[in-house]
Known about the structure:
By secondary structure, the protein is of the alpha+beta class. Helix content is about 20%, strand content about 35%.
Amino acid sequence: xxxKIIIVSTKNSIRFxxxxxxxxxxxxxxxxxxxxxxxxxxxxxxxxxxxxPANLQLVGNHFLGLRTSQxxxxxxxxxEFSDLEAADVYxxxxxxxxxxxxxxxxxxxxxxxxxxxxxxxxxxVTGDTMLFTINKxxxxxxxxxxxxxxxxxxxxxxxxLQGKRIxxxxxxxxxxxxxxxxxxLMEKDVVLAISLRLKELLEEAGVEVAMTRYTEDRTIPDYRxxxxxxxxxxxxxxxxxxxxIHNNGSTAKNAHGLEVLYHDGTVNRYQSKELAxxxxxxxxxxxxxxxRGVLNRRIVQLTGESFTSVLAEILFITNPEEEKxxxxxxxxxxxxxxxxxxxxxxxxx
Length: 349
């Protein structure tokens, strides 16, 4: 006899039973609810869900259920499937809702009458597609969406910096000097000094930090390959955040001010835009220069999917007055402090 999984669901409960060579094994009955406790506002799910045994072979793409895990900085809710490679997955983050759509689910008939998998987690079944919807007001904190080999994840982030993973990206490096000021100041040197100081501040607060370069050189000579490598550093860290640090430049010597970029084509674009605005506000407050706003730019280093990404353009190095500011002995420390406070405020609020 073959192996199969039978999943029987009711509102706020899921019963998993596995039939293995004719023997029925009841794995678990659980009740799940979203609620928050203490100051961390972390998702509380109990008891833990035991998924079917890893050696249980399934044909096609089956929805297996929900799994939770926790580290210092995050609580992860995973929607587990047997073969997501065969499915079409779409994640949508809007003002009010997070929606996760998974098509080509072979055991879809098990869920035809199911409306909720847990409190505040609604399920809608259409054809062979499962649509999960969460009301964001229930999350009460920062979050990330991510797709793994056979799961789709919502990462609920704690409000402190302890346990966070952040990639810092000092722009340019090596033969690529970036923009150059009227007196010869190079962007690659300014942003490296800021990044190294910011790394110290974040690590003191309990953040795990990886940088895309630690010296004036960059790792990969080819420009596009270098940009892709910078994203890979964040992926390898399983980062919560990617912050690229630059100075602006223009042939118009009077161009001046501050701006922060994000990419609206990623699954975490909503959170990236909010991070960009927080960073912009802090930089403008610190340096009292023209607020050029938060801008959508579809550039390579902002295309990472499983983390928030922003690129801060901190003053125009090509503007004589702002180049003078960038040369100041305390500039790297001021910029790093401003970025640190912005990152801290983003997670707290």
